[in-house]
Amino acid sequence: MALLLAPMEGLLDFVLRDVLTRVGGVDRCVSEFIRITNTLMPERAFIRVMPELLHGGKTPSGVPVRAQLLGSDPVCIAENAARLATLGPHGIDLNFGCPAKVVNRHGGGAALLEDPELLTRIVSAVRRAVQPSMPVSAKMRLGLHDDRRAEECALALEAGGAAEIVVHARTKADAYRPPAYWSRIADIRAVVRIPVIANGEIWNVQDALRCRFESECNDLMLGRGLVTDPGLALAIRAHDAQGDNMCATPYGPLSLDMQTPFVSWESLAPHMTDFWRIVCTGLERKQQAGRLKQWLNFLRRRYPEAQTAYEQVKGLTNPRDVDAWFARNHGT
């Protein structure tokens, strides 16, 4: 079993990759997309999105990161993939799933699922441009407006040389509205010979188990569910390893009772402090307070304590005021 951390533009950046992989349970991450237009990007552009390139392509806790590219021109994206490969990512991933209107309007992301032949040409160009030892993978949705060509698109990605496919089990038109159609991933898995990883609407262990059953995939990619519940990957692993109601973990013997977060609020507190430290050193001042509020907004779906914290910081804009809040509440 592999558990991957999803790329999400504007949310799952290097900051949360660092913190969530410190919590544990994640095998591999994928960076947010690096948009390729009609130029050869300088190295600093890749490093800005994926600073892990300066550290062997891994997060500080040692989890490998695969760099994701988004574009629609096979030649240009291949040239950029070749340059990116020299910086040492743990693979190149290609984005065929972004639902953003501005991306789709310019023929990128999920819009490419309307042209399976172009999918093959893009993957094939990138596959030829990088060394054979560099994995090339793809992430797709079920389609743009509907899922009628989902299997055709997956076969096109395989034909181009993709080593694996992550399938987000919704169309672009579905956006992030539940449900995710996990059984359609099983249909894709039945027609391709390469590994398929299931993604979409996995918020807890029960979701993970149902997704595995319906998709027939053992490997999962976690996104908003892991942001909301940073112990989710550990909980899934504990369920697989133990299969009972209590498990020994680095955080102590914690229950698999689905009403209780696997990692307690008290255990999460040091990671929140790390998060704020990384935000303050890695992001512009004007972004800092907003990033903390963004994560707390997700966490309050799982932790009652996060609701209280969110109410306390939602009016703060000056990082110094947030520093003072951390000092009062976390002793830092």
Describe this structure in words.
This protein has 2 domains: 3-242, TIM Barrel (Alpha-Beta Barrel), CATH 3.20.20.70; 265-330, Dihydrouridine synthase, C-terminal recognition domain (Bacteriocin As-48, Chain A), CATH 1.20.225. It is 45% helix and 14% strand. The chain contains 14 helices and 10 strands. It is globular. The strands form 2 sheets. Strands 1-2-3-4-5-6-7-8 form an 8-stranded parallel barrel, surrounded by 6 helices. Strands 9-10 form a two-stranded antiparallel ribbon. The longest helix is centred in the last third of the chain and has 18 residues, at 265-282. Helix 1 (14-23) runs antiparallel to helix 11 and helix 5 (116-129) packs parallel to helix 6 (150-160). By secondary structure, it is of the alpha/beta class. Mean pLDDT is 93; it is low at 244-249 and 251-255.
Whole-Å distance between the termini?
37 Å
Oligomer class: single chain
Instruction: Write down the overall geometry.
Output: globular
Structural class based on helices, strands and sheet pairing: alpha/beta
| Uncertain residue segments | 244-249, 251-255
CATH architecture type of the largest domain? Alpha-Beta Barrel
Q: Strands across the major sheet, in which order?
A: 1-2-3-4-5-6-7-8
Rounded to an integer in angstroms, the radius of gyration calculated over CA atoms is 20 Å
**How many structural domains in the coordinates?**
2
**Can you write the helix and strand succession as a string?**
EHEHEHEHHEHEHEHEHHEEHHHH
Question: CATH homologous superfamily name of the largest domain?
Answer: Aldolase class I
CATH class categorisation of the largest domain: Alpha Beta
In CATH terms, what is the fold-level topology of the largest domain? TIM Barrel
Portion in strands: 5-15%
Separate helix tally: 14
Number of strands: 10
| Average pLDDT level | 93
Helix content: 40-55%
Largest sheet: 8 strands, parallel, barrel
